[in-house]
Amino acid sequence: MQNLILGAAAGEGLNTGDILYQLVAFLILLVLLRKFAWGPLMGIMKERQSHINSEIDAAEKSRQEAKSYLESQVAELKKAKEEAKSIIDNAKKQGEAQGEAIIKASRDEAERVKEAALAEIASEKEKAVATLRQEVAALSVKIASKVIAKELDESSQEKLINEYLQEVGESR
Amino acid sequence: MEHGAVTKDFLGLTFNMSNVLMITVSSVIVFLIAVLATRTLSMRPGGMQNFLEWVVDFVKGIINSTMDWHTGGRFLALGLTLIMYIFVANMLGLPFAVVVDHNLWWKSPTADPTITLTLAVMVVALSHYYGVRMKGVKEYGAEFFKPMKFLFPLKIIEEFANTLTLGLRLYGNIFAGEMLLGLLVGLTKMGIFAGVLGIFPLIVWQGFSVFVGAIQAFIFTMLTMVYLAHKVSHDH
């Protein structure tokens, strides 16, 4: 049972070779793994970390951009609404003004047409009167010639003139 | 249940061929695991890369719990290699042991105190080396007289005690585990009744040994980082 104390498996004596072998093996393993495994692994982990960092930064940036864009869009929309409202108001005012102008113009036109009609009526009346005068003159000549032709006496002549005058008055 | 070992003398050094074999096997397995897992690295890790990144983060956590990353970052490769090597070495002796002509060939290399003490001495030596390199001889030497001058002998004893406990803790756990496994296997060979009776504690003990092996690998790495931090950091 003495073998169960330190170095049980080793039998007797100190295994100096084992010590050296373990040390060398571990150091070789350390160097090899550092070169072939830990180095690349650490590299990719660092790369991923920086990738994630940059992605988060980019996302934050685009979020800010989207926010400012949204704000500007809202402002634009508000502006556009106000503009549209002012355009509609303007159009309404303009429409009313135009309507009034049209009504006024048509009233004036009607007035003018009425004036023209009145003037025409007056001139027609003048014409008619002138025509009548001519007719009266012609009739007088006719009467005179008839009187002369009949050689009437004074009383019948007067009677005849009155008759004709009356006739003229009635025809008028 | 006593097993001998084949020893060979070479260049005035004594080699236990079983240890040489098992150290080589452990190293090769660790190397293969680590290298195969990092052959196809991608930004979106999967499978083995995921596992190895978890190990990296685990060791990073150990280092961060003992010192700040600025000084501790350089020990990451050491910690990773240590934890994986010791874990694999602990596991190797669990499934079976190979005995040829009463000589034990297949076992955990960490079930030999020579091996574990070698690792422990290496770690403590590294801690002294980094202590001198990162703080200078003067400050490194002054550490031995803090907090009080008369504690100097205790500080010296502490270094040896640290080395011994670090190595022997690992050896003791693994050696005891394999010893008991061997005894239980011997029990199952004694007869049909003992075999049926012995298989259950055997299974339980194997499961427990996996746990112990993992815990011991973690403890060894943890203590390595603690000793390194003790020598390297400025505020102790």
Description:
The complex is a heterodimer of chains A (172) and B (236). The model of chain A is unreliable at 1-11 (pLDDT under 50). Chain A has helices at residues 16-150, 154-171. The longest helix of chain A has 135 residues, at 16-150. Chain A has 172 residues and is mainly α. Chain A has 2 helices and no strands. Chain A is rod-shaped. Chain A has one domain. The termini of chain A are far apart. In chain B, the strands form 2 sheets. Chain B has a two-stranded antiparallel ribbon. A two-stranded antiparallel sheet of chain B has the order 3-4. The radius of gyration of chain B is 21 Å and the shape is globular. With 236 residues, chain B is mainly α. The A-B interface holds A 3, 6-11, 13-23, 25-26, 28-30, 32-34, 36-38, 40-45, 47-48, 51 and B 2-5, 7-8, 10, 13-16, 18-20, 23-24, 27, 30-31, 34-35, 37-38, 41-43, 45, 49, 52-53, 56, 76-78, 80-81, 85, 104, 107, 109, 111-115, 118-119, 122, 175. Chain A: It is found in: Cell membrane; Endomembrane system.
Summarize the structure.
The complex is a heterodimer of chains A (172) and B (236). Helices cover 89% and strands 0% of the residues of chain A. Chain A has 172 residues and is an all-alpha fold.
Task: Draw up the topology in text.
The complex is a heterodimer of chains A (172) and B (236).
Chain A: H1 16-150, H2 154-171
Chain B: E1 7-10, E2 13-16, H1 17-37, H2 48-66, H3 69-72, H4 76-92, E3 98-100, E4 103-106, H5 113-142, H6 152-188, H7 192-232
Antiparallel strand pairs in B: 1-2, 3-4
Helix pairs in contact in B: 1-2, 1-4, 2-4, 2-7, 4-7, 5-6, 5-7, 6-7
* Tally of strands of chain B: 4
Order of helical and strand elements of chain B: EEHHHHEEHHH
What structural category do the secondary elements of chain A indicate? mainly alpha
Largest interface: A-B, 38 and 49 residues
Biggest sheet of chain A, open or closed, and with what strands and sense?
none
* Biggest beta sheet attributes of chain B: 2 strands, antiparallel
Order of helices and strands of chain A: HH
* CA-based shape of chain A: rod-shaped
Give the helix/strand class of chain B. mainly alpha
Would you count the extended β strands of chain A for me? 0
Approximate strand percentage of chain A: under 5%
Helix percentage of chain B: over 70%
Name the assembly state.
heterodimer
Q: What would you call the shape of chain B? A: globular
Low-pLDDT sequence parts of chain B: none
Helix content of chain A: over 70%
Number of helices of chain B: 7
In the sheet with the most strands of chain B, the strands line up as 1-2
Family (chain A): Belongs to the ATPase B chain family.
Membrane topology (chain A): Single-pass membrane protein
Keywords (chain A): ATP synthesis, Cell membrane, CF(0), Coiled coil, Hydrogen ion transport, Ion transport, Membrane, Transmembrane, Transmembrane helix, Transport
Pfam family, one (chain A): ATP-synt_B
